[in-house]
């Protein structure tokens, strides 16, 4: 786990928060995340189509419980594919790396043997994250594919994932209480 970076796993109940996060991305960020600049309707359809029973979605919450960064880990027969986004004002702080690290562990615990990421070659942040994670990168026709062979799950990876989610739930509860206290204090001022 990245020091000081708490990554939460979302549930289907958080689909609206994920949708709001994606809609905050500008056209260039949407192009870098999805390969094309998707419109709002397509982003809503994407969020609505995530199967939380098969896939996993992770995020980093801000102090006001807004999603600062999100990652969708999609499971398939070949492995797991990761797509992630970080809001512009929160880049360069390790959020993407924390999401990638959590997704790596989760995919490993699923029992899949490979993690994949696809991006445009102009997506310097994703290329940096892939290299930092030790992923093999293949570039062709303006797109890059990164892959990483995953080790088998073990007790440490399984316990680590459970611990991280419990910590994330505690962090969320604290932030919710702080948000409510601020709202209450604002009502009295």
Helical proportion?
A: 40-55%
What is the C-alpha radius of gyration, as a whole number of Å? Answer: 17 Å
As for the number of domains, it is 1
Structural class by helix and strand composition: alpha+beta
SS elements, strand count? 7
- Strands ordered across the widest β-sheet: 1-2-3-4-5-7-6
Residue windows where pLDDT falls under 50 for at least 5 positions: none
Q: Could you say which overall geometry the principal axes of the C-alpha atoms support?
A: globular
Mean pLDDT level: 93
Please report the number of helical segments.
Answer: 6
CATH fold-level topology: Aminopeptidase
Name of the level-1 CATH class: Alpha Beta
Largest sheet composition = 7 strands, mixed
Task: Summarize the topology.
Blueprint: E1 8-9, H1 15-23, H2 27-34, H3 40-49, E2 56-61, E3 67-75, E4 80-86, H4 95-110, E5 114-120, H5 124-132, E6 136-140, E7 143-149, H6 155-188
Parallel strand pairs: 4-5
Antiparallel strand pairs: 1-2, 2-3, 3-4, 5-7, 6-7
Helix pairs in contact: 1-3, 4-6
Question: How would you describe the overall organization of this protein?
Answer:
The chain is of the alpha+beta class and 189 residues long. The protein has one domain (8-110, 155-188): Gcn5-related N-acetyltransferase (GNAT) (Aminopeptidase, 3-Layer(aba) Sandwich), CATH 3.40.630. The chain is built from six helices and seven strands, in the order βαααβββαβαββα. Strands 1-2-3-4-5-7-6 form a seven-stranded mixed β-sheet, sandwiched between helices. Helix 1 (15-23) packs antiparallel against helix 3 and helix 4 crosses helix 6. It is globular, with a radius of gyration of 17 Å. The model has no long low-confidence stretch (mean pLDDT 93).
